[in-house]
């Protein structure tokens, strides 16, 4: 028998929330070790070897000036990763909304999330086999893993609305992000130790990639077993097969979204400022290694700072949101993001102390802004349409976050430097701030038919 506390979750709901946190722990291994830290510079080195026959080493006077030839186009090896991320996010923009529509019609959300996770973890494990000059395999695996991760997160985010009441979501979402930073940080620390003791850096990186895939797969078992599947509710009537129904529901949602102008305004703002955030995540390791001249192990140590400061940052932002509201707290976080990007532009090469300070700044706002954005958006969704609306949210997070990465790729292609591209990111944060500032939170929650919490 479950007990009910008016100020807190029931025993059963609290147990499901604790199990739900573990998927943040599980997938953060991929997000941190592979997507944010190791794979981008590693794949860049593989591409440089394919183009020039050696990996660049500016200390020894070696610098790759040859391009890859892809579909008749000349592509700089240093730009390749950013173009791959751009392609994968554009594909995600088409795929993720359909995944969300399917999930809303499924009575097996948790199972669906786990299947996407295990497929993505398999692609991540296969990155171990990216060696020599075989950048094509690395590119294909990165696209596939990114799609699976985004699909699993569409369903995972939607489950938040099933296991947490509106007044609990800032807290639950922030704790999930904190768990993710802790899990990602622990694995990153283990991989840092591996890179420090193994002389063959490439082998150590490949083993680290393998470990992230295994970690992702193994810890997904906990939410798979601990969060129960629920019947679909409040479905939009559509004819035909499940896939046809899902496309019909998606079209209905895109038309229906015009009836929720506040929700639409938030999504537009989130599209811009999250594009800036995602670009910083993808570009930071390449920027640290290729622009500032740090070793892979040095950049990894800075990301350890991001991870563990991120735990405190996510929890701190959650506490501030309880008093000031998520809306105002996110706006404050965007101001800090702008300051961090400006400082990153002026960071001189080989200045590790300042690079470490920037890492701490990123950690402070990264988890907080993302966790509160997730819980804030959950208040603006009509009940029973969670997965479908969160698919649009994920499309903004992972499916349309391509402008920043495209800028980085093009700027490097034209200038042979990543530094000028940082200034362009400021515009993304400023535009996002403008739209978010215009969001009338209480009105948006009422329009969606939800209860307005005491603090928003």
TrEMBL record:
One of its GO terms (cellular component) is plasma membrane. This is MFS transporter, UMF1 family. It comes from the Bacteria. The lineage of its organism: Bacteria, Bacillati, Actinomycetota, Actinomycetes, Propionibacteriales. Its main location: membrane. One of its GO terms (molecular function) is transmembrane transporter activity. Residues 262-456 form the Major facilitator superfamily (MFS) profile domain. SUPFAM superfamilies: MFS general substrate transporter. It is found in: Cell membrane. Keywords: Membrane, Transmembrane, Transmembrane helix, Transport. It is a multi-pass membrane protein. It comes from Nocardioides lianchengensis. Pfam families: ATG22 (PF11700). Coiled coil: none annotated.
